[in-house]
Amino acid sequence: RSSPFTPVSPLKMSDSEKCVFLSNYKPFPFEFSDVSLSFELTPSLTIVHAEHRIRYTPPVVGGEASSAPLDLDGDGDMELVSIYIDGQVLKEGTDYSLGPAPHGGGRRLRVLNPPWAAASFSLGVVTRTFPDRETSCEGIYTSNGCILTQCEAEGFRRITYFPDRPDAMARRWTVRLAAEKESCPVLLSNGNKVAE
Predict the structure, then answer these.
(1) Mean pLDDT by 10 residues, the chain (196 residues)
(2) In this structure, what is the dihedral angle of CA atoms 133, 134, 139, 141, given to the nearest 10 degrees?
(3) DSSP secondary structure string, the chain?
(4) First and final CA of the chain: distance in angstroms?
(5) Which CATH superfamily is domain 26-178 in?
(6) How far apart are alpha carbons 45 and 130 in whole angstroms?
(7) Backbone conformation region of residue 139, classed left if phi is above 0, alpha if psi is from -120 to 50, else beta
(8) Is it true that the peptide bond before 118 is cis, omega within 30 degrees of 0?
(9) What is the 3-state secondary structure (H, E, C) of 154-168?
(10) Rounded to whole angstroms, how far apart are CA atoms 125 and 95?
(11) How far is CA 25 from CA 1, 53, 139, 152, in A?
């Protein structure tokens, strides 16, 4: 019996788009225990301050722990303002590099020498985003007078640099939203409200 539906050809990816398979991932050598995000919201410019508490969990190679750089994912029109570890501002070229992501699409921020020997360390990343220019409906964008976020599947990398992968989840998240009351009378985030 014939079907009333027209057959559809499989989706074709462009050369710049690449599938990322589970086999592409190596175990992530860092554990994020706490993430604190602070948003200074306006439709044309949003500043995001991200503070992460991180512990190095070294991969064992030949019976010995090896060191690894810390790779963070980014994408879209987001701009890096600054990056620091334990309050020390990092310098591009010496302490970190910023370049294309290895699997196509987006950018990779590589912290070259994170403090592997420390029990844990604090990584701060400050980014600038432009919600009214974001047309992908991912990351931070505007729609019908509202400033919204969409973090799944890979939208979080349009907000701040982060290891945007399924095995890099923080245990505790704290979010602070700040905006002019006239332009943003209602501020809403997931989780429990702890202050106003």
Answers:
(1) 53 59 79 96 96 87 71 92 98 96 86 90 97 93 92 90 86 94 89 83
(2) 70
(3) ---SSPP-PPP---TT-----GGG-----EEEEEEEEEEE--SS-EEEEEEEEEEE-PPEETTEE----EEEEE-TT-EEEEEEETTEEP-BTTTEEEEE-TTSSSEEEEESS--TTSS-EEEEEEEEE-GGG--SS-EEEEETTEEEEE-TTTGGGGTS-B--STT---SEEEEEEE--TTT-S----SS-----
(4) 63
(5) tricorn interacting facor f3 domain (2.60.40.1730)
(6) 5
(7) left
(8) no
(9) CHHHHCCCECCCCCC
(10) 14
(11) 45, 22, 23, 18
Q: Side chain identity at 126, as an amino acid letter?
A: V
> Tokens standing for 158?
């349009």
